[in-house]
Amino acid sequence: MxxxxxxxxxxxxxxxxxxxxRPQLEAAHDLLHKGAGxxxxxxxxxxxxxxxxxxxxxxxxxxxxxxxxxxxxxxxxGIGGSYLGARAAIEMLGPGFPQLLSKRQRKAPLVLFxxxxxxxxxxxxxLDVLADKKVSVNVISKSGTTTEPALAxxxxxxxxxxxxxxxxxxxxxxxxxxxxxxxxxxLADTEGYETFVVPDDIGGRFSVxxxxxxxxxxxxxxxxxxxxxxxxxxxKTWQKPDPDVNDCYAYAAWRNILLRKGYGxxxxxNYEPKLHMxxxxxxxxxxxxxxxxxxxxxPAGVDNTTDLHSMGQYVQDGRRMLFETVLLSEQAGRxxxxxxxxxxxxxxxxxxxxxxxQVNRQAAQGTVLAHVDGGVPNLQLSFPERSAYWFGQLVYFxxxxxxxxxxxxxxxxxxxxxxxxxxxxxYALLGKPGFEQRRAELEARLNGSERA
Length: 452
Ligand code: PA5
Known about the structure:
The protein is of the alpha/beta class. Helices cover 50% and strands 12% of the residues. Helix 4 packs parallel to helix 10, helix 5 packs parallel to helix 10 and helix 13 runs parallel beside helix 16. 5-phosphoarabinonic acid is lined by residues 79-82, 141-143, 146, 149, 203-205, 288, 416, 419.
């Protein structure tokens, strides 16, 4: 089970405050389940773990099997919700150093990502290392118009066609996009790529359990049916809007209670490097869903114990506006004991024979108590182990909590109007036709700030 431990919030907030949230939780629950809240056209993810398209899943698994057979590398081109979930799953559940393993050792192609930045070095260096590899490409964009993946795909389309010929390339390029709209849909249909659908009623950051995440995750050899099963069981678990029995809603409620008390930054904390990208996925989910209309909790992340030696000082002792949510797996993947050193020069023989997991756990518990003493409210979320099943359940937990939390905040958790602003400026500065006026205004501002 995913369990919420809220005892270390109580020095900062009263249990009765959670009780007082009940009517608001019920209202948020009704808005969500009756489809009456803002953004209700994007609720497809809610029943998706039971209602997903079985035929599409069969096609995804077949395509994944084909890529596993004929490719050393799958390049996934996408940004935001079109890549973070897949990367989170593959890094949480796959081997720690996949690039140093052969395909046989990995038992899967290497999954690499592109189109999530505009760095020329990144693209050039990626193409360099692909020179002697058998490659497939999965281009993912719901809108089909996002600049970063569109530009990367422009490069990869030509590269694949030069490499495999037009006919060969089209058997190795898979497009995941809207059912009928958008430039990528048109391009894929014209070129004859195999395509997968991002459902109309599921937004990017809620889409990891659709083809968006499932194809790359299946290529990495992870059981996507287990993942959907985990999410399905989660949906059954968190049905009642009662925070005493529903940890998902209790999480949504506590974070809002803390926000109202001035704790405007939530740090997601892990003690396992394989959870780094999961935190990145979570940051996007909460940041894009809640940060609007001048509201929202700022989602941050730290990887401990690494970041105890960089961010730890601030968390312990800096401005008091932070609360932490520690995400802990009850089981580590592997046992690894601290060896006995007969010379004991480092004085650490008192740890000899203990498993690193135990040392890590005590580091986590000691840190939690220190941070609570330093004025940082603490929530802990534990889950049994890193597996496809629990990944699916965690995804559903955070998606559902995000929707409820968004409604508690009175924002539309399913849109992202603010993302457009940088795009408009970028288009204008790059000289896109139709943006001349904006370009002139921006250039005047940029020249002014250079002079000042
Ligand atoms: O959650 C979202 O909707 C966004 O983060 C999108 O996933 C991101 O902007 C990429 O969009 P698209 O898939 O249309 O290229």
